[in-house]
Design goal:
The protein has about 475 residues and is of the alpha+beta class. Helices cover about 40% and strands about 20% of the residues. The protein has three domains: about 190 residues, Ribosomal Protein S5, domain 2 (2-Layer Sandwich), CATH 3.30.230.10; about 90 residues, Alpha-Beta Plaits (2-Layer Sandwich); about 100 residues, de novo design (two linked rop proteins) (Up-down Bundle), CATH 1.20.1440. It contains 14 helices and 15 strands. α2 crosses α3, α6 crosses α11 and α8 runs antiparallel to α11.
Length: about 475
């Protein structure tokens, strides 16, 4: 097997996985078909958690765990989809202007999200959906699922690149990242775009300083004396259920905080906290939090009546702006008040930490980077209420064994932690997690806890099988 388009981003095992998928797909579609293989990594976020949907920066790395998706064009509008893991059932759907999703939780919705994104984007550039080719796709995902490592973004990015390749469509990576940034809205998560950008724009041995509105990314070299231990709590952070409700609630709380702050500061056109930060060149967390404290109670009723009075806007308009409309409208638990002050304090202080973290990494000040990660975890636990007792225990274990810093990574509510350490300390930290967390919890640890490396972003190649 060789690659007709050379790409140094793929490692040997990924090429082998693509070749195996390619042979299987060729048996399905016939020997003459052109085969394309997309490789899309997951990501681990070093710092900047729950800031992306406020339009504020993040600092993730693309990881050396990837999804490989092989595709061939079909002479129809059909998309057929199979997964190398038989627990994910085969699916088939048709390219059309509005693709109806499968019921919530279906794995193939991430592929539908990708396909819908490509259709919508290229419709604006004169590509009619009726003129596109469908595709036969075969997937092999090795990014741990529901672990806060963005297996969903890896699948969505892989499917996006594969569908574009079979249709001869191309975009610069930054534009592809903007296009797929909103794709998970299709599955009902109001996600911010970090995961897709990290998967597409990652660079070997670099973290990415990603900013939004407009999307841009700058690689930040990982110091050679730094290592990353990533450990999955095996507490399922499943975005199709309770975690999605919690996540979307945080999105609403943050955008309400932004609007209240904007009113207090006489700013117009504000949707998210990032708009406030961008409007105030000389901002600092303490001053903005104080302004919010003066402008509104710390928590507000979920019926939004009080919010509407404070914003001096009709309640139905406030509800539509914050919760969306129609089938996509977010339902808020009427018994739980919306936390405004705590959420804003996390997002604003986390933004400050991201900016300091970039400087600390660039200057090789790993102790400082570790301290910022520890502060981030605390803020996520205390102000954002998205840690769990198990994640807290793992973070403690890692720090106790010599990690320079450790924190939950991703949305939280389960999922993984990331620990920053000196390479020589990594095995001691893993051993401490095994002894202090996995064994007492009766959990398998072999595939759950490892040193991860920053890997290159997603790419697509044409396969030439022997
Ligand atoms: P994970 O951990 O992959 O579910 C989620 C969002 C990100 C970001 C983080 C929190 C999705 C698909 N991704 O990540 O955009 O908001 O939480 O920083 O929901």
């Amino acid at each position: 097997m060789s690659r007709s388009i050379a790409s140094q981003a793929w490692d040997k095992s990924e090429i082998e996985r693509a070749a195996a998928l390619g042979r299987d797909l060729r048996a399905q579609v016939g020997g003459d078909a052109r085969l394309f293989a997309a490789r899309a990594p997951g990501r681990v976020n070093l710092i900047g958690e729950h800031t992306d949907y406020s339009g504020l920066p993040v600092l993730p790395v693309a990881i050396d765990r990837s999804t490989i998706l092989v595709a061939a064009s079909l002479p129809s509008l059909r998309v057929t989809l199979r997964n190398a893991d038989p627990s994910y059932p085969a699916r088939e759907f048709v390219l059309q202007t509005r693709i109806p999703p499968y019921p919530a939780g279906d794995w193939a919705n991430y592929v539908k999200a990708a396909v819908q994104g490509v259709i919508d984007h290229f419709a604006g550039r004169g590509v009619e959906v009726g003129g596109m080719s469908g595709a036969a796709m075969l997937v092999d995902g090795r990014v741990p699922v529901a672990a806060g490592l963005s297996s969903s973004a890896a699948l969505t990015v892989g499917a996006t690149l594969a569908l574009m390749a079979v249709n001869g469509l191309d975009l610069p990576p930054i534009e592809t990242a903007s296009m797929v940034a909103r794709s998970e809205w299709y599955v009902g998560t109001m996600a911010g775009g970090m995961d897709q950008a990290a998967s597409l724009l990652g660079q070997r041995d670099h973290a990415l300083f990603i900013e939004f509105d407009p999307l841009r990314a700058r690689p930040v070299k990982m110091p050679s004396d730094a290592a990353l231990v990533v450990a999955d709590s095996r507490e399922i952070a499943d975005k199709s259920g309770k975690v999605r409700t919690e996540y979307n609630r945080r999105v609403v709380e943050c955008s309400l905080a932004a609007r209240l702050l904007a009113r207090a500061l006489n700013l117009v056109g504000v949707r998210v906290l990032g708009d406030v930060v961008r409007a105030r060149k000389e901002w600092n967390t303490a001053a903005l939090v104080e302004a919010l404290r003066r402008a509104a109670p710390e928590r507000l009723d979920p019926d939004l009546l009080e919010a509407s009075a404070l914003l001096d806007a009709p309640a139905d308009v406030v509800a539509r702006d914050l919760l969306g409309e129609g089938a996509a409208r977010i339902a808020l638990d009427p018994a739980r008040p919306l936390e405004i002050l705590k959420r804003a304090r996390h997002v604003l202080s986390e933004t400050g930490r991201v900016l300091e973290a970039v400087r600390a990494l660039e200057e090789g000040r790993l102790d400082e980077m570790g301290a910022l990660m520890n502060q981030s975890h605390r803020s996520l636990a205390e102000d954002f209420d998205c840690s769990t007792a198990r994640l807290d225990r793992m973070v403690e274990c890692a720090r106790g064994a010599g990690a320079l810093g450790a924190r939950l990574t991703g949305a939280g509510f389960g999922g993984s932690i990331v620990a920053l350490c000196r390479p020589a300390d990594a095995s001691r930290i893993i051993a401490a997690l095994v002894r202090g967390y996995y064994v007492p919890s009766g959990l398998e640890w072999q595939d759950a806890c490892a040193v991860f490396r920053a890997s290159p972003g997603a790419s697509v190649i044409e396969l030439a099988l022997d």
